[in-house]
Amino acid sequence: MMNQTTGYVGIAAIYNNSIILGNGSMGILIIPKPMNTAINILTVIILFITMISLGCTMEISKIKAHLLKPKGVAIALLAQFCVMPLTAFSLTKILRMDPIKTVTVLICGCCPGGSLSNIFSLSVKGDMNLSIVMTTCSSIAALVFMPLLLYIFSQGFTGLKDAVPYVGIITALVFTLLPCAIGIFINHYKPNYSATVTKVGLSILIISSIIVSVLSGLAVKDVIWMILMPDVLAVAALMPLIGFIMGYVMSVICRLSPQCSRTISMETGFQNIQLCTTILKVAFSPQSIGPLFLFPLLYITFQCAEALLLALCFRCYQRVTAPHGDPYKWENVDAKEEEVKQ
Known about the structure:
The chain is mainly α and 342 residues long.
């Protein structure tokens, strides 16, 4: 608790000393306590449901298969916890972002991979087993790497050494692993319930997300300009794009199959936005983080738009290069490469 309290004090001082003017006044965010509590609870519920649904898609046998041949997973973890944190660090330095924005971007950059990557890996005909295993492994690895990377990169900024609430971040990470383990348990021992859990979870997730969006909009309506500034928009747009490109480049350099390369590309660019939002909203006080707890929502907008554009480009390229208009050419090539590897 000591570290978390120190983090509150440090980041609050940074926030209050940041000269961010809007209509001639400081953009201080004051959220009514009941509304703030409601947003916090719903944010945690969204994270819980997302992770339990992810667990319900996991099969222990497939996890073992990829762990016995860990090359793809190892490269993916390297890309996730090297490319994205370095990208976040570099962009904040290049754009000379103020400390409060820097903390926000670093936390987002150090987060593990998100579950949306599984959907977009499917859209680019990636290796779905690898995608799901990578998402799970990065969530587990984040328990060590995320606090470590935040500590290392925060040393590069004046005043951030005591501003990161490590206790709150580790607590949130542990909270992500528990529902994921429950989901894996359900899928392994009660597989008939997996589909039901996922469907019910999706309904609750949609309703909770709508309520959180409305409440958050009402809470930050007077200072929303703070997350729509050029430097914040630039980071939200560039981070996922750099992740997609570098993830693919690293995979190609390491001579992975095109199917695995596309999968790792998606996994690298997609961050666990639910986790990031939970950390920013729950581990920081409203006066400390201000409206920047909504930065992950801005990030997810750009990452989905860019991933969709890449998926469309891939599909067009696939259709143009397929012999005699055969749309299954790439699937056949990938299948043959997997047979050769085995």
